[in-house]
């Protein structure tokens, strides 16, 4: 009987502690169990050491605040440009000092990073590899977008629905939820729009697309003439790859006939084995 009574008292809801309780009881053994569990989870994931800054970034970070104070109206990009100018004019002895600091920290980081990599599981290594691949792909897309903008690639026009939204969107600068509700209302308005009014947006979009196609054709011809082939033959480019380039990618040796097409190879004769 005494054992049963003691068990009921120990498991009473008043004595059970939760992780959110504060006060003197927060240091009870139950709270200690919660903290031990969280520490074990954190310990299972190694902490990646931070790569040290190179000599130039180290120098720029040291003078950024003084440059910002001396040029209060300068943008962050302007501050970076001013730092680059000062770095170029810096004497070799000072540059060597920053370089030595970087190499010293780099040696320590290499040791820590080797230890960090040795503690990773195969699943964690695969996840890091995937994240690195995604970052590289994102960087390549941004570089391609920047290149196309510099080369003056025509901007793809909006379709009929987007033209309607751009023309009838009443308010800008809304919160995420309010803007979502606004776009939902625009979608309902578009579905209730009379056919004659919707046809107007459709015809405007078609005319704009025709203009875009003509501009793209001229732009691509210009890019090919200037040997900027990397700017064409990409996604959403109107000109498809020629049969010759397609065969070349597959490792074939196409022979283009007079009609501009690749002749199909003749089947061998079943008796002679010759074409």
Characterization of the model:
The chain has 275 residues and is mainly alpha-helical. It is 63% helix and 0% strand. Helix 3 (55-70) crosses helix 4 and helix 7 (160-168) packs across helix 9. It is elongated and about 75 Å long. Residues 1-43, 235-242 and 244-265 have low confidence and may be disordered.
Write the SSE topology.
Elements lengths: L1 H9 L18 H16 L10 H16 L5 H13 L3 H27 L3 H29 L9 H9 L7 H16 L3 H31 L17 H7 L26
Helix pairs in contact: 3-4, 3-5, 7-8, 7-9
Rg, nearest Å: 33 Å
- Describe the main β-sheet briefly: none
* Helix fraction bin: 55-70%
The total beta strand count reads: 0
Stretches where pLDDT is under 50 for at least 5 consecutive residues are 1-43, 235-242, 244-265
Identify the overall geometry: elongated
- The succession of helices and strands, N to C, reads HHHHHHHHHH
Structural classification: mainly alpha
Q: Please report the number of helical segments.
A: 10
What is the end-to-end distance?
A: 101 Å
Q: Approximately how much beta-strand content do the residues carry?
A: under 5%
What's the overall average pLDDT, rounded? 76
